[in-house]
Design a protein that fits this description.
The chain is an alpha/beta fold. The protein folds into two domains: 2-90, 60s Ribosomal Protein L30, Chain: A (2-Layer Sandwich), CATH 3.30.1330; 103-246, SPOUT methyltransferase, trefoil knot domain (Alpha/beta knot, 3-Layer(aba) Sandwich). Helices cover 29% and strands 21% of the residues. A seven-stranded parallel beta sheet has the order 8-7-6-11-9-12-10. α4 packs parallel to α5 (143-149) and α4 packs parallel to α8 (234-246).
Length: 248
C-alpha cells in the first residue's frame, strides 16, 4: 500500500491529467463507490485506486491501492463532495461486429455530457443492444458523462462513428433508421409500424438532427406535445421513444 500526501507527486499529477481527453489514450478515471463496484462486477481492468484511509477496508483485496488525503482526492475527483474513492480504469474499445441485430441508439452531435450519459443509461434500462455516438458528441469518458451513465458503459457496447458509417452499417444489417425531428414530414411515434431492428437517432440540443440525417433516414418521428412548450429535453424525448420502441 502506498501513501501520498503531496499534490505535487508525479503519480497524482499524471492521474489528474486524465481529466483531459487528450491524455486518455488508454485509461480514464471513475469516482464514487457505485462506479467502482460496477467496474469490479463487470471485470474491468483497474490500474490503480486512490482512496481515503477511512475506506481502506473496502479495498483490502484490490491491488495498486494508494491512500490519499481529502485534499488530493478532491483534486482527482470532479464532484463537489467526493465519496472517498477514485480509480483509474483501462479504456477498452468494443469491437463493432459486421452484422448488427436489435435496437440501437445513435447520438448525433449531442453536446451536453449529462444528456449523453443519461441517454446511454436509459438505453441500458430499456434493453437496447448498443449505442453509437458521433465524434462531435460530448466526451464519453469525462467524469461528468461517466457520472450520468452510472456504469451503463460497462453493460452495453458504445461505438464512435460518423453519419456515413452509420448508414452503411444500417444498410448491411437491414436496420431501419428512425430520426427525431419536428418537421412536417415526421410521424407521431405512436403511429410507427411495429419494428424491432432499428437505430433511433437523437440530435443536437439546439439544432436537432442534421439536414443530411433528415434526408437519408428511413422514417422521421416526433413526440406530439399537447402543451405549450416548443420542445422536450433530448434525454427525456429519448427515454419516451426508447421504451416505446422496446415494447414492440
Amino acid at each position: 500500500m502506498n501513501i501520498i500526501t503531496s499534490k505535487s507527486n508525479n503519480v497524482i499529477k499524471n492521474a489528474k491529467k486524465l481529466h483531459q481527453k487528450k491524455y486518455r489514450t488508454d485509461s480514464y478515471l471513475i469516482e464514487g463507490w457505485h462506479l467502482f463496484e460496477e467496474a469490479l462486477e463487470n471485470q474491468a481492468i483497474i490500474r490503480q485506486v486512490f482512496v481515503l484511509e477511512a475506506y481502506l477496508d473496502r479495498v483490502e483485496n484490490i491491488q495498486n491501492v494508494t491512500v490519499v488525503t481529502s485534499e488530493i482526492l478532491s483534486l482527482l475527483a470532479d464532484s463537489k463532495t467526493p465519496q472517498g474513492i477514485v480509480a483509474e480504469i483501462l479504456l477498452e474499445q468494443p469491437v463493432l461486429p459486421d452484422q448488427l441485430h436489435g435496437r440501437y441508439l445513435y447520438l448525433e452531435d449531442v453536446q451536453d455530457p449529462g444528456n449523453v450519459g443519461t441517454m446511454i443509461r436509459t438505453a441500458d434500462a430499456a434493453g437496447f443492444d448498443g449505442v453509437m455516438i458521433s465524434k462531435a458528441s460530448a466526451d464519453l469518458f469525462s467524469l461528468k458523462t461517466l457520472r450520468s451513465m452510472q456504469g451503463s458503459h460497462f453493460h452495453l457496447p458504445i461505438w464512435k462513428m460518423d453519419r456515413e458509417e452509420l448508414f452503411e452499417r444500417a444498410s448491411q444489417s437491414n436496420l431501419a433508421v428512425l430520426a427525431t425531428t419536428l418537421s412536417e414530414a415526421s410521424m407521431d411515434y405512436r403511429q410507427i409500424p411495429q419494428i424491432d431492428q432499428l437505430i433511433l437517432v437523437m440530435g443536437n440540443e439546439g439544432k436537432g438532427i442534421s439536414p443530411e440525417m433528415a434526408a437519408q433516414a428511413d422514417q422521421l418521428v416526433h413526440i406530439t406535445m399537447p402543451g405549450r412548450a416548443e420542445s422536450l429535453n433530448v434525454a427525456v424525448a429519448a427515454g419516451i421513444l426508447m421504451f416505446h420502441l422496446r415494447n414492440f
